[in-house]
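Q: What does the predicted 3D structure of BACK domain-containing protein look like?
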Amino acid sequence: MKIFFKVFECVVSWVNHDLEERQCHLGELMEYVRLPLLPQEYLVQTVEEEPLLKANLKCKDYLIEALKYHLLKSDQRLMFSTPRTKPRQPVGQPKVMLVVGGQAPKAIRSVECYDFSTETWSNVAEMPGRRCRAGLVVLHGKVFAVGGFNGSLRVRTVDVYDPSTDVWATSTNMEARRSTLGVASLNNNCIYAVGGFDGSTGLNSAEMYDPRKQEWRMIASMSTRRSSVGVGVVNNLLYAVSLVS
């Protein structure tokens, strides 16, 4: 978050250093400042009150975009795609492994990250709710925790983790409650949730999440019920493997 403050402040400072010569470049520079990723309070109290931006129509548009972003619900923000809503990605970002939720002995919210380059574990942001026996999948650089068991009920909720900002957001619920399900993304386009256990029986149903429409819909069921199911993609086909439930 600090880098976004610094970029904005550096642009303003650079232009003010030679206002007559540099003011014409302000709109072009502000195009690359991640205003939507700054806190709303900072946008209102600092950015909106900056005289340079008040005098520039293009900059006003960027400020309106940022304020609009803050009015959206967390799941809607995932689909609000502009260059200014995508955090900068460091070159050579290290490979990491996430361990999400689980039981200790009850369902937990905590998430740990293992960095292969340093061979160290660290805690990252916790999920919004407790979750174990969930399905995990990566889509468009974000980690989706799908379904699972919260210690009392099998759930149909979905949480989404953005590793670039270390923030979890709540996404659209599935159609069915599922724990011990299998999930996978196909063509880096949609998420599939397959089988699982709803608290009383194993499931043969499956559903698909379309991130563009932000909705789940049921698809063709499997030929048999499967819980504790593993799902993989080979040659653009989805495979579900498990003991029959």
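A (community wiki): The structure tokens above were generated from the sequence. Residues 183 and 193 are 5 Å apart (CA to CA). The chain has two domains: 3-79, 128-233.
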